[in-house]
């Protein structure tokens, strides 16, 4: 059996196809076997006020698409545009690979994988934002 396996802490919440599911008082493991299910751990979710940097804004678009809160066609267009813009600023090899992976995931209609690839850019962006301006 393939699919996504979620390991949940006690009382952890996850969004599955628009429904919020809360775990009970014990750790548990869920196997998601439905392909293309929209899944988002709420502990990983960005709030609108946290989408305050270029990478976080693009992550937020992916999150909205994943949660079903954005039209898939519009979100896909915005994601591809955002990824292209990030590609002009983040020119190191690692960032470019993450962006290529996010772009491919977006083309494949896999918002979960796109978000996962984009989140890998957050530490890189944080490091760049912490650098003093010269």
A few lines on this structure:
The protein has five helices and five strands.
Q: Give the averaged pLDDT, no decimals.
A: 92
Question: Which strand order do you get reading across the main beta sheet?
Answer: 3-2-5
Q: Oligomerization state of this entry?
A: single chain
Largest sheet: 3 strands, antiparallel
Structural class: alpha+beta
Per DSSP, what share of the residues sits in E-state strands of 2 or more residues? 15-25%
The secondary-structure element order is: EEEEEHHHHH
Write down the overall geometry.
globular
Number of domains: 2
Give a verbal description of the structure.
By secondary structure, the protein is α+β, with helices and mostly antiparallel strands. The chain has 2 domains: 4-43, no CATH class; 46-130, no CATH class. The chain has 5 helices and 5 strands; from the N terminus they run E-E-E-E-E-H-H-H-H-H. The protein has helices at residues 54-67, 72-89, 93-107, 111-119, 122-130, and strands at residues 4-8, 13-16, 19-22, 28-32, 39-41. The strands form 2 sheets. It has a 3-stranded antiparallel beta sheet, covered by helices on one side. A two-stranded antiparallel ribbon has the order 1-4. A hairpin with a 2-residue loop joins strand 2 (13-16) and strand 3. The model has no long low-confidence stretch (mean pLDDT 92).
């Amino acid at each position: 059996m393939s699919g996504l396996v979620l390991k949940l802490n006690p009382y952890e919440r996850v969004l599955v196809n628009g429904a919020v599911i809360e775990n009970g008082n014990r750790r548990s493991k869920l196997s998601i076997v439905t392909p293309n299910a929209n899944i988002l751990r709420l502990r990983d979710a960005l709030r609108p006020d946290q989408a305050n940097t270029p990478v976080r804004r693009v992550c937020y678009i992916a999150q909205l698409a994943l949660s079903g809160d954005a039209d898939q066609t519009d979100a896909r267009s915005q994601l591809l545009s955002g990824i292209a813009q990030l590609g002009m600023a983040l020119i190191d090899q690692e960032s470019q690979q993450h962006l290529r992976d996010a772009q491919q995931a977006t083309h494949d209609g896999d918002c979960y994988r796109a978000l996962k690839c984009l989140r890998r850019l957050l530490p890189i962006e944080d490091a760049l934002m912490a650098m003093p301006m010269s």
